TrEMBL record:
InterPro entries: P-loop_NTPase. Residues 8-17 have a biased composition (Basic and acidic residues). It comes from the Bacteria. Residues 171-182 have a biased composition (Gly residues). This is Putative ATP-dependent RNA helicase. SUPFAM superfamilies: P-loop containing nucleoside triphosphate hydrolases (SSF52540). Residues 1-39, 144-184 are annotated as: Disordered. Keywords: ATP-binding, Helicase, Hydrolase, Nucleotide-binding. Residues 18-27 have a biased composition (Low complexity).
Length: 381
């Protein structure tokens, strides 16, 4: 007569993952770790993508969201440290980039509260709990005229301040060695097509001068559509899209928002004004209404709605540097809010970003929120 196996011994005979269990069927292997979500930063040349990245680091450290942005290699860490130092400590704008090292890559680590079904216990109802996430960002240089609608501009484009994310952190095909715009354009489009989410930066002050955001957008999105297919839920692109209307601190943007009633008062005397994300799209539509014979936002919005699902698109009004706060009062003052000042050149003929300095502390507005929204929603229909 066979004696029964003691319970303790039975537990030691449980199959390891991948090995046959007692019944002969292989035990289930542990699930593969979820790959980091990829988010591409997208926008016309000189729209402030490098400054946005530095502001993202500052917002991650000081915004109270328990997230951190870290470099994946030495060059990426030094680039992030240098741009953050320029913006926060030296109080000067990050210069327009000309040449960047290849394979710049960062990871944003954080946690989000989600409903999760317990794996143990009798009750299997979903409960809210913090869930860690990682978002991958990578970047390289791009020719400035690369996405013009005119072929002659693309043919003669030279490396300039437009930035883009490369196809991966370690693919080695990166950034500054392109002799022309064709290969660089192809790599950028391939990368954006493979991303889970996209951050599109729209600079209202730049658009007032250049009026080329739609030309840049429409060419790029058509090329992305060649490679990305559709979402499976609708006929639109599968990406989630966060549209960031930048430079909220600029008088052209802030004063129009105040005049049209879009500004939400600060929650405290120390806080900054903001446009609530539930009204950001409405403000975007009103940004140039009645001020331009041809409203540039109309064409851009039609293009966005044509290619991206409404449930997968959200709008944010952002500022990389925030508003000025008097150091003695330590609060926002409507009569003195401008956080930039023009420098006297002292006869040196300062130009570009060097003409201006940041007056006070850098306090980004709505810079981290678009990334967190993308991180929590990419992969959903």
């Amino acid at each position: 007569m066979t004696e029964p196996t003691p319970p303790d011994e039975a537990r030691t005979e449980e199959a390891r993952p991948g090995e046959p269990a007692a019944g002969g069927a292989p035990a289930a292997a542990p699930p593969e770790p979820e790959r980091p979500r990829r988010i591409g930063l997208w926008g016309a040349p000189t729209c402030g993508k490098t400054t946005f990245l530095a502001a993202l680091r500052i917002a991650a450290e000081e915004g109270g969201h328990d997230v951190r942005l870290v470099g994946c290699n030495r060059a990426s860490t030094e680039f992030l440290a240098d741009t953050t130092r320029q913006l926060k400590i030296e109080r000067r704008f990050v210069p327009a980039t000309r040449e960047l090292p290849p394979n710049l890559a960062w990871q944003l680590h954080g946690t989000q509260i989600k409903k999760v079904r317990p794996t143990e216990g009798r009750l299997r109802f979903k409960r809210r709990r913090p869930v860690p996430y990682t978002v991958m960002l990578d970047m390289m240089d791009a020719p400035g005229g690369m996405f013009s609608s005119r072929p002659e501009d693309r043919a003669t484009s030279a490396p300039s301040s437009g930035l883009r994310f490369s196809s991966s952190a370690g693919d080695g095909d990166g950034g500054s060695g392109d002799g022309g715009g064709g290969d660089a354009e192809e790599r950028l489009v391939r990368h954006l097509a493979g991303c889970d989410g996209l951050l599109f930066l729209f600079d209202p002050t730049r658009e007032r001068e250049m009026n080329d955001a739609y030309a840049f957008f429409q060419r790029t999105v058509l090329q992305i559509s060649e490679l990305a297919g559709t979402s499976g839920v609708d006929h639109k692109l599968p990406h989630h899209l966060a549209v960031c209307i930048t430079k909220f601190d600029h008088p052209e943007v802030y004063e129009r928002a105040v005049r049209l009633g879009y500004v939400t008062p600060p929650a405290s005397i120390f806080g900054m004004p903001r446009v609530d994300e539930t009204r950001a799209l409405e403000f975007f539509q009103d940004l140039y209404r009645g001020t331009h014979a041809h409203d540039p936002v109309n064409s851009l919005l039609r293009g966005i709605r044509s290619h991206f699902g409404e449930s997968r698109t959200r709008y944010f009004v952002t500022s990389a540097i925030g508003f000025y706060r008097d150091p003695l009062e330590n609060r926002f003052q409507p009569e003195d809010y401008l956080n930039i000042a023009e420098q006297s050149d002292g006869g040196d003929g300062l130009a570009g970003e060097d003409r201006f300095r940041i007056r006070g502390d850098v306090a980004p507005i709505n810079v981290l929120e678009p990334v967190m929204w993308l991180a929590g929603n990419v992969g959903r229909p």
